[in-house]
Amino acid sequence: MAEGISRVAVLGSTGSIGRSALEVIAAHPTRLRCVGLAARCSTAELESQAKQAKPQWIFVADDQAARQHSWAGLPTETRQLAGDEALERAVQANDVDIVLSAIVGSAGLRSTWAALEAGKTVALANKETLVVAGRLAMDLARDRGATILPVDSEHSAIFQAMQAGRRSEICRVILTASGGPFRNHSREQLEQATVAEAMAHPHWSMGRKITIDSATMMNKALELIEACWLFDLDEAQIEVVVHPQSIVHSMVEFVDGSVVAQLSPPDMKLPIQYALTYPDRLPGVAATMDWSQRHRLDFEPVNVERFPAIDLAREVARRGGTAGAVLNAANEAAVAGFLSGELRFTDIVPSCRAIVEQHHFEPSPSLDRLIELDRWARKEMARWVCT
Ligand code: NAD
Ligand code: MG
Known about the structure:
Helices cover 45% and strands 16% of the residues.
């Protein structure tokens, strides 16, 4: 490795997290270098990212989209990879130090897995990997000496706050949630929720899937499961609290009653940078708090009747085994159904619950079994979406 430089593969580079990561990398040329870019089908954007970052490789998951693009502007030093195995090999190569896992959904599982297998440092945005296969992924990381650093803002906050005490002194974690665009909607209003309304998140500009997840609070549900795996916590040690200003990104309460929080304006560039430069802190790319202004920080309980995803996640976290994979796949398919106008907003979480409850539960599944159940749950959801 070049002295002091971390070589980063950015998986999901054309997405909201990927673009922010490239800004962070470009701002710290003496510390970070981009060596690879992967995306699904946004070929023009990928090519223009490659022109700027001059990576050694790029990968387009959609073969047809890759073939239809001319790639005339690709830098001469950048080669194009074809096939999932080629991406996995590139991620595992010696010239990659950090893999930023920011592909959306369980599509990000294989490449994240490959990175863990090779003992890489994984800057993890793709929470779905831990929801689907938390036990196996954490075991793999431990066995291969891989490090998982959280990118999700809440988990980055928890990770930072935890450094204020010893592991044995932590009594609980307070996971904050903005409450999304429907925080104050009545049950009747939620039934009429449209895609445009659900896409209008009050603070964060994110990809489509996570934006809908924020509206149903399934995002917080998935984050609760993610936190259990990342920090080895029971779901009962995690409190979910609505904090509409999205400035306190989460908190850790220690046994003496001290609560340590991490605050910053809502901008993913900060947690991305912390994961890419950990344990160092570098001058930030993101805006900082303006303390000359008046700020209010409100905290309120989650209304679990209007937002049943949190209780569902608690049950799934308690069960473990195959439950997370089924919940995640059902939710991905339900979100797609809602976005295409074929599933009502208020049917997303109940349909996920029904599919989790009806699946054939196994306590210690293999990765192949989890992938099979992922497919099964998507098919089951198709029945809800079509009816
Ligand atoms: P996004 O939809 O904006 O971007 C997704 C990226 O993944 C795109 O680059 C897309 O091309 C790529 N992709 C999709 N399928 C692929 C495949 N099969 N192979 C290769 N690339 C593929 O999503 P996002 O909002 O950037 O979120 C990415 C991940 O980060 C999600 O897991 C999300 O939960 C997590 N996350 C996002 C935010 C945020 O602020 N956006 C915050 C915390 C965590
Ligand atoms: Mg988050």
